């Protein structure tokens, strides 16, 4: 799972999120920031508030007294496959180096190729996506 602060940077850089079953997120509140939730039709569902606004609804006693939150209160933690998909055709390759680091090669603005290294594949994908999204 990518770091919460990296997820925030991706969001702020413009990575769109269409919530779907299987998505991981945390609630942007001090006491809940390190408690990931999975969006699922069994426990956490996409719902609609009284005035038609989107909500995440928590069903049953699994999530104690938390009834619902609005999407802007959630921080999406995209999975490795979602990060790779978001890179699209800008993704050129992934390799693992001898010392164990993962390297994502991506095409950024102007056709330039960049290599992003990280200890985990999802972190390399996230870093590459940040570079692509923030390239001038």
List the helices and strands and how they pair.
Elements lengths: L3 H9 L11 E4 L9 E2 L5 E5 L5 E5 L9 E2 L4 E4 L2 H8 L3 E6 L5 E6 L5 E6 L2 H14 L2
Antiparallel strand pairs: 1-2, 1-6, 3-4, 4-5, 7-8, 8-9
Helix pairs in contact: 1-3, 2-3
Notable traits:
single chain; 136 residues; Double Stranded RNA Binding Domain; 3 helices; 29% strand
How far is the first residue's CA from the last residue's CA? 28 Å
Roughly what percent helix?
10-25%
What is the ordering of alpha helices and beta strands? HEEEEEEHEEEH
User: Which radius of gyration do the C-alpha atoms yield?
Assistant: 17 Å
Outline: elongated
What is the number of domains? 2
* Average residue-wise pLDDT: 89
Contiguous low-pLDDT stretches (5 residues minimum) are none
Counted by DSSP, the helix tally is 3
Count of DSSP strands: 9
Helix vs. strand class:
alpha+beta
Major sheet characteristics: 3 strands, antiparallel
Bin the strand percentage. Answer: 25-35%
Description of the molecule:
The protein is α+β, with helices and mostly antiparallel strands and 136 residues long. It folds into 2 domains: 18-77; 80-134, Double Stranded RNA Binding Domain (2-Layer Sandwich). It has helices at residues 4-12, 80-87, 121-134, and strands at 24-27, 37-38, 44-48, 54-58, 68-69, 74-77, 91-96, 102-107, 113-118. Strands 2-1-6 form a 3-stranded antiparallel β-sheet. β7 and β8 (102-107) form a beta hairpin. α1 runs parallel beside α3 (121-134) and α2 packs parallel to α3. The two termini are 28 Å apart. The model has no long low-confidence stretch (mean pLDDT 89).
């Amino acid at each position: 799972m990518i770091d919460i602060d990296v997820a925030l940077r991706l969001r702020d850089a413009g990575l769109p999120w269409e919530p779907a079953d299987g998505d991981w997120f945390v609630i942007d509140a001090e006491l809940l920031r390190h408690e990931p939730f999975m969006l699922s039709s069994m426990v956490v569902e996409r719902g609609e508030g009284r005035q038609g606004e989107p909500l995440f609804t928590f069903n049953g006693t699994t999530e104690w007294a938390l009834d619902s939150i609005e999407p802007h209160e959630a921080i999406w933690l995209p999975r490795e496959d979602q990060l790779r998909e978001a890179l699209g055709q800008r993704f050129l390759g992934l390799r693992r180096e001898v010392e164990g680091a993962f390297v994502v090669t991506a095409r950024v603005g102007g056709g330039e190729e960049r290599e992003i290294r990280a200890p985990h594949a999802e972190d390399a994908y996230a870093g590459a996506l940040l570079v692509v999204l923030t390239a001038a």
